[in-house]
Structures are given as structure tokens and as C-alpha cells.
Amino acid sequence: MITIGGTEVETLRLNTIKALTRMTDLLKTRGAIPYNSEKTPTCRNHLMWMCTTAITKLEEESEDFPIDKASRWLGFVHGVLAMLGDMDVMKERGATRPLFTKSP
């Protein structure tokens, strides 16, 4: 069993997929479609591409997409959506924190 910060990597992988899926659902409500737009990495379409790509890579357990990379992408998406005003940071924290912290 491999752990990171006391949490099994498999649990982190599955919970990261859940959090990324939350973001794709939010982005869909804003009309986003997955499009790799490296020139405008903060546009909603690029964020959707990041989420869908990360989900696919995590589901495939791709060796070129480790859990720490998925976590960085999720953090980037969270940050941009917060800056765009599409996401309430406190609500998202309440929704995703239980996915990434150990129960007492």
C-alpha cells in the first residue's frame, strides 16, 4: 500500500476524479467545452480540457500523469474559477475538504 500524507494513493486518485468531475459540472453550466487553448490557459474551455484530460488520465492510471500533477491541475482550475467569480471558495472548500483529509 502506497500512501501520501497518510492517505492511500488509490483513495487520492478516486477523490481527485470526484473533485475534477465537480469542476466539469460547473464548467458545463458556463457553456465550456474541452479545448486545449495554450494561448489562453485561463479560459473556461481550457479549464474544461484540463479537467477532462486529468480525469481520463487518472481513470487509465496513466504513468505519465501522476497524482501530484493531477493535484496541481485541480488547484489551478480551482484558482482560476475563483478569480473568474464562478466558484465560491468557502463552498468548494466545504465540498472537497472531506475528500482530501483523514477522518478523526
Q: Kindly, what is the distance between the CA atoms of the first and last residues, rounded to a whole number of angstroms?
A: 21 Å
Taken in chain order, the helices and strands follow as EEHHHH
Q: Indicate the structural class.
A: mainly alpha
Low-confidence stretches: none
| Shape field | globular
Q: Describe the largest sheet.
A: 2 strands, antiparallel
Total number of β-strand segments?
Answer: 2
Share of residues in strands: under 5%
Strand order of the largest sheet: 1-2
Radius of gyration equals 14 Å
The helical percent reads 55-70%
Estimate nothing, just give the exact number of structural domains.
1
Mean pLDDT: 91
The total count of helices amounts to 4
Describe the overall structure:
It is a single chain. This protein is mainly α. It has one domain. The protein has 4 helices and 2 strands; from the N terminus they run ββαααα. It has a two-stranded antiparallel ribbon with strand order 1-2. Helix 2 packs antiparallel against helix 3 (67-84).
Strand and helix layout:
Blueprint: E1 3-4, E2 7-8, H1 9-29, H2 44-59, H3 67-84, H4 89-100
Kindly list the characteristics that best describe this protein.
104 residues, mainly alpha, two-stranded antiparallel ribbon, 4 helices, 2 strands, 4% strand, globular
